Structures are given as structure tokens and as C-alpha cells.
């Protein structure tokens, strides 16, 4: 039988060299392997090793390759790499970045270092970067590109095309071109395709269509969702008076959604998102991302213990009740989490608004009734056949009650979070599970007390 052999790729060899002792020979090998490693793999390797080791590989890359790799790294790791590298090579990369990408990196750096790098920029680049940095971190203005090629509404198609050709290298995108009037007020947009196909003497106003734009202070996730819902390739960003400030592009939107999805996934599991790859994160950084929620959950779980202590006498009378506690708490937590996940998603994509609270509760109440009826009937039959019909009745009624309660709570919590300005994902799995555990046990023992005549 032929033996299985695993072929080591240049990226695997690079990673192995960077994890081992470095000397003159290994540095030459790193430089040689970097030449034959695809850019996506170089990005993965740099993101998987500590910044000090990543800097060694980074210095071995050609300028165009190093820029492409740097742009693909998360902002937190970019900042770590800058602190490690310093020097002229990183200053050149910072100069080449788009203003919105540069602002995102500066936001992760110490103020003194960010100021130093800012002073080293070309005056025009410094001004554009400062403009983007002036917006809050969660505002879409922080992610727009101020390098936008706009056209005047009193031009014809020929003049507009001449302007595009003259400035083709300046903006981040030219596929959708904003059309502005006096004072840079946004009048609409025109696509490059329609501009190229138009009669040169045709007034630009005849080609202009209504623009889907966004205010610079709009929350970044809300703006990104709107961008995707309209299936745009670019979207103008304006101020309160509809004056054009910049443009939002698809790559910026995808970056925002990646960050938001990672944040929601982490928080729904009771952790904070890591700002770099898992393998390159220190043990302390991973612990910090998890410990806060573990402490919160540990404190809140005391509620469940206290509920059990209150009903300890009931358990002494009917010990068999203790066997069903894991089933009931698990059912409540799962039902609540299902409802919360569904409503959180609906909130994110704009299907549900805060004012729809009543509709959501009424819908989840009916969903809970149906789920509870199915599970309760099953619990009644199985528990009744094995432990007797009184116990079966307790199980059936409890499962029905828990499903209704958990579905309503799961639908309520994300909307309440949205109303108070919190992240709906935070109110999902960890908090709802603990709340439903304690409340479910109260329902369980209350029903058991009534049905079984406990005292």
C-alpha cells in the first residue's frame, strides 16, 4: 500500500521558518520562499504569527506585495505591525493607503505615533485623512473615501468624460459618478457605462438618475445593510445639507459586514471578538475576550441556584422532579435563543423596527404556543408512561409554559437592546439562557406544587 505523503507548500515552509530560530540562512530562505508564495497565503502566514516574526517576513516582500498584504490584514494587526516595523518602509505603505483605510489604522495606534505618521503625509493626503478621522468610529463617514470624482450638473457628456479621463487615477472608483450642483450639493449619479454610450453633446442632466445616498453620521452597519439591499457598487456620502463628502465602495461595505458578523457571532457565544487571527493572539488576549462574559454569566447563574434553594423542600417530597431540570432549562434556553437570533437578524436587515415590538411579541407568543404544544404533548406521553400521569401532566404543562415564556423573552430582548442603544447580539444566547433557566424553574415548581399538591 502506498504511503500517504503530505506536500509542504511554500506557505507552510515560511510559517515553519518564522516559528523557529532566525539566522542569516533562514532569513535568506524566507526571502526566497516569499517570492513564490501567493499573496493570500502570505497574508494568512503574516496574520498567524506574532507581529515581531511577521515583521521579518514583511521586510522580505516587494513593495507592491507588501502593500497588498498589509491592506488585507485586520486593522488591529496592522497597528501591531506598524509599532513593530516603524522606519521608512512602513511610512511608504501608509502613504499609499486610501484615506479611509489609513484612518482605520490610525484609530488603532497610540495618539503620538498616529500624529507622527500623519505629519509625514503629503498635505492633501493629510487633509483627507483628518476629515475621515473626524467622524465617530461607528459612523459611516469613518469608512468613506473622500477621494471622489464628481461631475457638475451643467456639463455635457463630452466635458464629463474629459474630466473622468483627466482624473482617472485619483478616486477609489469611477463606475458610479456623483453629479453635483452649486455648493457641491448632490443632484444624483450617473454610471460610467451610460456616460460612455451617450452622445457627446447630450446634457449630463439627461443622464443623471436619483442617487441612493447616506448621511456621514449614519451607523456603519445600517449604512452597509442599505448599500447591500439596493445592490449598489458605490454610494455617495453626504452631510446634513446634502453636500457631497465622499463615496462608499463595495470593499468598504464587505469589511464592515465581516467585522459586524464576527462581533455578533462572538458576543452571541459570550465572548468579545478578537482583533487578529486566533493563532497570532496571545493567551492573555484570548482570556480577556472571554473572561468578562464568564464572570457575568457566573454571577447571573446564581439566580438559578437560589431558585433551586427556594424549592428545595419540593424536591425532597418528589425527588423524581430533579431528573427533568436539565431538560427544561435546556428547552427554555434553546427556544429563547432561536427567537432572539431570528429577531436580531430581522432587526439588522430592516425587516423589524423598534415600533414593531407588539407585533413581534404577538407572533412569538403564537410560535411558542405551537412549539410548546408539540413538546408538551410529547413530554406528557413519555413522562406519563414511565413515571405516572401526574408527573406527565407536570411535564406537559411546564414545557408548554416554558416555550411560550422563552419565545416571548427571546423576541423582546433584541428590540429592547436596540431601543436603549445596546448591541442586540449581547442580549442573545448568554443572557437569555440564564434568564430562561431561572424563570423556567419557577414555572416548573409552581406547576408541580399545584398539580401534585405539594406544600
In short:
This protein has helices at 10-19, 24-35, 39-48, 51-59, 63-72, 75-85, 87-96, 99-106, 111-119, 123-133, 157-166, 192-197, 204-207, 220-229, 250-268, 283-310, 312-317, 325-348, 357-387, 389-419, 429-452; strands at residues 151-152, 176-180, 186-191, 214-215, 234-238, 244-249. The protein is mostly helical and 455 residues long. It is found in: Cell membrane; Membrane.
Explain the layout of strands and helices.
Layout: H1 10-19, H2 24-35, H3 39-48, H4 51-59, H5 63-72, H6 75-85, H7 87-96, H8 99-106, H9 111-119, H10 123-133, E1 151-152, H11 157-166, E2 176-180, E3 186-191, H12 192-197, H13 204-207, E4 214-215, H14 220-229, E5 234-238, E6 244-249, H15 250-268, H16 283-310, H17 312-317, H18 325-348, H19 357-387, H20 389-419, H21 429-452
Parallel strand pairs: 1-2, 4-5
Antiparallel strand pairs: 2-3, 5-6
Helix pairs in contact: 1-2, 1-3, 3-4, 3-5, 4-6, 6-8, 8-10, 14-15, 16-21, 18-20, 18-21, 19-20, 20-21
Strand order within the widest sheet?
Answer: 1-2-3
Please bin the fraction of helical residues: 55-70%
The domain tally reads 3
CATH class of the largest domain: Mainly Alpha
Radius of gyration, taken over Cα atoms and rounded to an integer in Å:
29 Å
The name CATH uses for the topology of the largest domain is Tetracycline Repressor, domain 2
Largest beta sheet, briefly? 3 strands, mixed
Which class do the helix and strand fractions yield?
Answer: mainly alpha
The CATH homologous superfamily of the largest domain corresponds to SLC41 divalent cation transporters, integral membrane domain
What is the strand tally? 6
Low-confidence stretches: 1-7
CATH architecture of the largest domain: Orthogonal Bundle
Q: Please report which band the strand proportion falls in: under 5%, 5-15%, 15-25%, 25-35%, 35-45% or over 45%.
A: 5-15%
Overall average pLDDT = 85
Distance between the termini: 72 Å
What general form does the structure show?
globular
List the total number of helices.
21
Return the string of H and E elements: HHHHHHHHHHEHEEHHEHEEHHHHHHH
InterPro entries: CBS_dom, CBS_dom_sf, Mg_transptr_MgtE_intracell_dom, MgtE_N_sf, MgtE_transporter, SLC41_membr_dom, SLC41_membr_dom_sf
Keywords: CBS domain, Cell membrane, Magnesium, Membrane, Metal-binding, Transmembrane, Transmembrane helix, Transport
Main location: membrane
Family: Belongs to the SLC41A transporter family.
Amino acid at each position: 500500500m502506498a504511503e500517504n505523503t503530505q506536500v509542504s507548500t511554500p506557505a507552510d515552509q515560511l510559517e515553519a521558518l518564522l516559528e523557529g530560530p532566525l539566522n542569516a540562512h533562514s532569513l535568506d530562505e524566507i526571502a526566497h520562499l516569499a517570492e513564490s508564495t501567493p499573496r493570500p497565503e502570505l497574508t494568512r502566514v503574516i496574520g498567524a504569527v506574532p507581529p515581531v516574526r511577521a515583521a521579518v517576513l514583511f521586510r522580505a516582500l516587494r513593495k507592491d506585495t507588501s502593500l497588498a498584504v498589509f491592506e488585507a490584514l485586520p486593522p488591529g494587526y496592522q497597528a501591531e505591525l506598524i509599532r513593530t516595523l516603524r522606519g521608512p518602509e512602513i511610512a511608504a505603505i501608509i502613504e499609499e493607503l486610501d484615506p479611509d483605510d489609513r484612518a482605520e489604522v490610525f484609530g488603532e495606534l497610540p495618539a503620538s505615533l498616529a500624529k507622527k505618521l500623519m505629519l509625514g503625509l503629503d498635505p492633501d493626503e493629510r487633509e483627507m485623512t483628518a476629515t475621515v478621522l473626524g467622524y465617530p468610529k461607528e459612523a459611516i463617514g469613518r469608512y468613506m473615501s473622500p477621494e471622489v470624482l464628481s461631475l457638475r450638473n451643467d456639463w455635457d457628456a463630452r466635458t464629463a468624460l474629459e474630466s473622468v479621463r483627466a482624473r482617472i487615477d485619483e478616486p477609489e472608483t469611477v463606475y458610479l459618478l456623483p453629479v453635483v450642483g452649486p455648493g457641491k450639493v448632490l443632484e444624483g449619479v450617473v454610471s460610467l457605462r451610460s456616460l460612455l454610450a451617450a452622445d457627446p453633446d447630450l446634457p449630463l442632466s439627461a443622464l443623471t438618475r436619483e442617487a441612493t445616498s447616506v448621511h456621514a453620521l449614519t451607523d456603519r452597519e445600517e449604512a452597509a445593510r442599505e448599500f447591500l439591499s439596493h445592490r449598489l457598487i458605490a454610494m455617495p456620502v453626504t452631510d446634513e445639507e446634502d453636500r457631497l463628502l465622499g463615496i462608499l465602495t463595495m470593499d468598504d461595505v464587505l469589511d464592515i459586514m465581516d467585522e459586524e458578523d464576527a462581533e455578533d457571532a462572538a458576543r452571541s457565544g459570550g465572548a468579545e471578538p478578537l482583533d487578529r487571527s486566533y493563532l497570532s493572539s496571545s493567551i492573555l488576549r484570548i482570556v480577556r475576550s472571554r473572561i468578562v462574559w464568564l464572570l457575568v454569566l457566573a454571577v447571573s447563574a446564581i439566580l438559578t441556584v437560589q431558585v433551586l434553594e427556594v424549592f428545595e423542600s419540593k424536591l425532597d417530597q418528589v425527588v423524581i422532579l430533579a431528573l427533568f431540570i436539565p431538560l427544561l432549562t435546556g428547552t427554555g434556553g434553546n427556544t429563547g435563543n432561536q427567537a432572539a437570533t431570528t429577531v436580531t437578524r430581522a432587526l439588522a436587515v430592516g425587516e423589524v423596527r423598534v415600533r414593531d415590538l407588539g407585533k413581534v411579541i404577538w407572533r412569538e407568543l403564537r410560535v411558542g404556543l405551537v412549539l410548546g404544544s408539540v413538546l408538551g404533548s410529547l413530554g406528557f406521553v413519555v413522562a406519563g408512561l414511565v413515571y405516572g400521569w401526574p408527573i406527565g401532566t407536570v411535564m406537559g404543562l411546564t414545557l408548554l409554559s416554558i416555550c411560550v415564556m422563552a419565545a416571548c423573552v427571546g423576541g423582546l430582548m433584541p428590540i429592547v437592546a436596540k431601543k436603549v442603544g445596546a448591541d442586540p447580539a449581547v442580549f442573545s444566547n448568554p443572557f437569555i439562557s440564564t434568564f430562561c433557566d431561572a424563570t423556567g424553574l419557577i414555572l416548573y415548581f409552581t406547576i408541580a406544587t399545584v398539580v401534585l399538591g405539594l406544600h
